Amino acid sequence: MDARNDKxxxxxxxxVKKLVLxxxxxxxxxxxxxxxxxxxDTFFVGRIGTFATAGVGLIxxxxxxxxxxxxxxxxxxxxxxxxxxxxxxxxxxxxxxxxGFFGALGxxxxxxxxGLLFSTPVLSLLGADPGRVAQxxxxxxxxxxxxxxxxxxxxxxxxVLNNQMRFQGNAFFSMIGLVSGAVxxxxxxxxxxxxxxxxxxxxxxxxxxxxxxxxxxxxxxxxRSDSLKIHLKNVRFDAYYLKNMAAGGLPALFxxxxxxxxTLCLNAAAGAAVPLSQADASxxxxxxxxxxxxFVFSALLGFGQGFQPVxxxxxxxxxxxxxxxxxxxxxRVGLVVLTAVSCGTFLFAPQxxxxxxxxxxxxxxxxVAMRCQSCSLxxxxxxxxxxxxxxxxxxxxxxxxxxxxxxxxxxxxCVLVLPRLLTPPIWGVYLSQPxxxxxxxxxxxxxxxxxxxxxxxxxxxxxxxx
Length: 466
What we know:
Elements: H1 2-13, H2 16-46, H3 50-86, H4 90-117, H5 119-126, H6 135-148, H7 152-167, H8 171-195, H9 200-224, H10 239-272, H11 279-316, H12 320-347, H13 349-354, H14 360-376, H15 380-392, H16 396-421, H17 426-460
Helix pairs in contact: 2-3, 2-8, 2-9, 2-11, 3-4, 3-6, 3-7, 3-10, 3-11, 4-7, 6-9, 7-8, 7-9, 8-9, 10-11, 10-16, 11-12, 11-14, 11-15, 12-14, 12-15, 12-17, 14-17, 15-16, 15-17, 16-17
């Protein structure tokens, strides 16, 4: 208990910028390496062929669904826990920790059962249909899907443990769990795919084994660190805890859920916007670009995850001046870093795509898509940091609105409509993501200005809550 009180003091008194950076670097490393093992699948599968790359790309939305539920329970419980710990309510936080963990474990098991039972309609929904893509692509998608599903309970639960540890300020233990699993996955990919001749099943098996390994390490980390211990007796599936979990978790659920739907729409649009003979290459190209750009974006997410526990603890302690300082600092750093990175991805887009697949059609389509997305990437600093602030503070409506803006409210209509309006249609697909980024920024900007104004009021009037 003393260790937790000491942490509360540190989180609410140490210099804000130093505190954010200390908590951010393990999260950045975790997110980058976690994203890297998704890229590793794409890289090694790309050595098999374009059909394999397209097939794995079609199954990516399934992984996004697993992550969506993991983030819902993980961030929903973690946001509440950080505010409760900031207010020195230890038992309350422990109940939420157990509820979030066992809730995710149950949902993961449900996804596994339903996915196996309804595999054919789910695969058709994902786009693995011989009428839309080559039969070879369908076969690869089915092989990857059948193995990946087995990891669903561990994937959802691992995301919960990771988020809960971060929100308690134990980002280092969280990093160890994710990084170790990612390194294992990168090592197992070539072993399973090429040495054991398992093909795309090997890539899926490497992902499942590494996720189980991460789950075990993260759970061990909760026992060895000063994190709250998870006990079944603390589970509370009642209205109070579910409501508070939804307040913090719905933005993440909608963000990841819409990301899954957006990927489905993107795959469909990418295949339909070119001649049928190029459909598999187009799907493969956008799959590669999505993985590369998410790798870049994951660094911003990791940086924001360093901000969230600082925000939660100090919001709970009503130290809004520190919340404001951390928020502004993160936006400034994010803008500078993303601007520099976007210049690099714009200039070296063909070379980056060629790393994953040396098919000329894939490189040609992927390079244009990456350059278009690079132009709007810096705007995501404002959108992402504002979303994380509102989510951690329990501002559900604003957080959810920003979470779904980029991949839902704008992107999905754009990717469905623009290819019908532009000639050639592929340009409608190219421009959908930058258009969504711009509109999400336009939504976030007035919210940012308003909350900054309210922070000033709270600093002048201690009874006022932003």
